[in-house]
Amino acid sequence: MDVAASVARPWLAHYPQGVPAEIDPSAPNTIVRILEESVARYADRPAVSSFGVRMTYAQLGEASRRVAVGLQQLGLKKGDRVAIMMPNVMTYTPVVFGILLGGYVVVNVNPQYTARELTHQLNDSGARVLFVLENFAHTVMDALPDLEKVERAIIVKPGDLLGFKGAIINFVSKFVKRAIKPYSLPACITFSDFYSWAARDKLKPVEVSPHDVAFLQYTGGTTGVSKGATLLHRNICANVAQCEAWMKSFMGDRPDHVMLTALPLYHVLALTACCMFMSRIGAMQVLVVNPRDMPDLMKILKQNKFTMLVMVNTLYNALCDQPDIGEVDFSRVSASISGGMATQAAVAAKWKKLTGKAIIEGYGLSETSPVVCVNRLDIADFTGGIGYPAPSTDVSIRTPDGQIAPQGEAGEICIRGPQVMAGYWNRPDETRNVMTPDGFFRSGDVGIALPDGTFKIVDRLKDMVVVSGMKVFPNEVEDVLVSHPAVLEAAVIGLPDEKSGEAVTAYVVRRTEDVSAEDLRAWCKQNLTPYKVPKTIEFRAMLPKTNVGKILRRALRDEVSGANGANPSS
Hints:
By secondary structure, the chain is an alpha/beta fold. Helix content is 31%, strand content 23%. Residues 1-6 and 564-570 have low confidence and may be disordered.
């Protein structure tokens, strides 16, 4: 099939009624406009909730303005990069909006980064200022000798902007939990001082264009050196408009949405779907500082009447296993959305049984702001696919030579749309490598197009295992393994093998101890072609994951390679 045919959108014939083919061109095209319009429309509505304290949209607008003023006082100029190294505390939302309001560029940083990882990202981005939660200031101190551009660190405390309750939280964090390690940072200031100084001045006018850079959103580094996806204001705004067009066709204008923001806001899915999109529709975000703290997460779930969830497969799985999950009221939930990694059918089935709600899987990447595809919001059961391309989005499945694969045949997922990044920051060669001649972004993911206009992910190209010339996709094997009642989690990789080139190797976290490697091989043999059955199964207490819960197959491969190439034992 000729590549020119890729402009066709066969899925439009299957679109749910009310979903437009194109996004509204009159929608806000800068994030500054999104903030200003929401503050004007929803001034008295709660915008953000943290530790039970709420901030209205009017208060969010004022707090964001003061952050922008404070950065102007520090001498920053339009386009300068400002990094944020924080979990989901109250300060995060006004800081991210304040940076953008001042015409600066947000560099989101994982607060769990080591000094080496932090140094790479700050130097690569050229960030001049860093907002960092005090709990992680010691990492900045360790990185300081190698930082090339950072001039000022602004130290945020967990309870900042929370009033009297925040003072208690700060005291407990420092003196009771002793969560603050000693640090020494020259030229650092506290956020409270920074915020107080900013109250003295007015914001100097800044003209922010749709074509200005809004975010340098660094990829997770799961396939190599972390690169900054350059996301313009128009990229993020287009994705917000795409989410709005999809959701409103199912839900209309609902004034009482509450989003449980359990994924960290430095992750692109939470950034767009929770922070930006919720702000656009006047909803409230309930911030979860640490979703891996299950007792705290359960407390938040019980105390809040949430209507939407955006989580990853491992978090849904962990919640289903909580003994008191039955005490949570899911009656108001209109959407349980999953992204960031493949959702496993066994997990979706448990969630449906628990809540009566189907998990709605979507698909996206840092480079696409992130949403590319999403399922209908009214599905009765988990589909196992990633759904339809969003309005104004072209998706094609390409063969290795760049041609469009026949329907139902696996190939690389390629994407074109207004949400696709401008390129990788200061890496023109890397940008050229991921773009096709006709302007599609090459995702590196393997997928297939289905007859109903939806798409299905098969796996990552680089994670594929080749056994004697036969392709094995780890997702498929992992799905079979976790469908066993004694398996909690599983990760599959390929390891060198003298006879077959590569051997399928599985790492499993057991739910109960009464299952052996041979039991699981027998289970796999009932459900998989022989060459897909793991040759080796190793049991682990836990699997390496990103901070959002995505299992890191690369970390397992690196670990084994570092052990002199020795294969793990059963």
